[in-house]
């Protein structure tokens, strides 16, 4: 697919290359002994290898750009206005358990603003992408957010804390407010894909707390370009800085955000 700017096509190339290495490693997960150490070590290596593939592809072509990735030390580029923001494997726990729901996420930031984003699900061969002002796409199909108007017909996505994280009470309060109003809440375990699915109209909205920039950078642009509104838990906050996000179509956003903020 040769579409969009040179930078966007470079991001697609990097995402697909990383996807190939991850699919190969994913097919090996089931052969591991079910032990926390061996499986965890294996997936950590798969994650790191994928990020190295992305970094080499991007930095060979744009050596002056900065690079922020989940698995490596940040690189400050000689061009201080541009930076790649990368999650080589969003949905690591799914990957570890042999669940085919995970993705590669790559964003390009220019002067503090995300201007291009790619989220690639290699298992389903779904490539979600956007450039600022050019709309959002899944492979060759233009995406728009859901047109549903009634909360009772809507499905929302979120993340839930694990391993004794202190924000469990916040998440339970959120669920207690949202669940009675809608058709369901899903926790699929990959924030990048949650945002992509809102863009595609599969989910009607998404919220989560305690995320990292690389979890949501690409998805923020993709979902906005598909017509969603995106804010932090407080209207003036920046989700990339706070890690807190509320996202939904314009029709329902105010009602959805009010639920989560007024507790």
Report on this model:
The protein is α+β, with helices and mostly antiparallel strands and 263 residues long. The chain has 2 domains: 6-143, 2-Layer Sandwich (Fructose-1,6-Bisphosphatase, Chain A, domain 1); 151-261, D-Maltodextrin-Binding Protein, domain 2 (3-Layer(aba) Sandwich). The chain is built from 8 helices and 12 strands. The chain has helices at residues 6-29, 36-61, 92-96, 168-178, 191-199, 213-225, 239-242, 250-261, and strands spanning 66-69, 82-90, 103-110, 113-121, 126-131, 136-138, 141-143, 155-158, 184-186, 205-208, 228-231, 245-249. The strands form 2 sheets. The protein has a 7-stranded mixed sheet with strand order 1-2-3-4-5-6-7, sandwiched between helices. The protein has a 5-stranded mixed sheet with strand order 9-8-10-12-11, sandwiched between helices. Strand 6 (136-138) and strand 7 (141-143) form a beta hairpin. Helix 1 (6-29) runs antiparallel to helix 2.
């Amino acid at each position: 697919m040769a579409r969009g700017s040179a930078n966007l096509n470079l991001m697609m190339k990097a995402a697909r290359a990383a996807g190939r290495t991850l699919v190969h490693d994913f097919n090996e997960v089931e052969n591991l002994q079910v032990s926390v150490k061996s499986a965890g070590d294996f997936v950590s290596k798969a994650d790191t290898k994928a990020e190295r593939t992305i970094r080499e592809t991007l930095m060979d072509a744009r050596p002056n750009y900065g690079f922020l990735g989940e698995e490596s030390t940040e690189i400050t580029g000689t061009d201080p206005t541009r930076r790649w923001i990368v999650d080589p494997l969003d949905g690591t726990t799914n990957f570890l358990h042999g669940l085919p729901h995970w993705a590669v996420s790559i964003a390009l930031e220019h002067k503090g603003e995300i201007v291009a984003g790619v989220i690639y699900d290699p298992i389903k061969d779904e490539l979600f992408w956007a450039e600022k002002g050019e709309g959002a796409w899944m492979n060759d199909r233009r995406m728009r957010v859901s047109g549903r108007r009634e909360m009772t017909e809507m499905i929302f996505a979120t993340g839930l804390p694990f391993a004794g994280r202190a924000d469990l009470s916040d998440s339970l309060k959120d669920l207690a407010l949202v669940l009675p109003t809608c058709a369901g809440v899903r926790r699929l375990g990959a924030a990048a894909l949650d945002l992509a699915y809102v863009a595609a109209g599969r989910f009607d909205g998404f919220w989560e707390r305690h995320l990292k920039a690389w979890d949501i950078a690409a998805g923020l642009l993709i979902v906005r370009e598909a017509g969603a509104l995106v804010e932090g838990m407080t209207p003036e906050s920046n989700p990339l800085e706070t890690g807190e996000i509320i996202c939904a179509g314009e029709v329902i956003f105010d009602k959805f955000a009010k639920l989560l903020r007024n507790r």
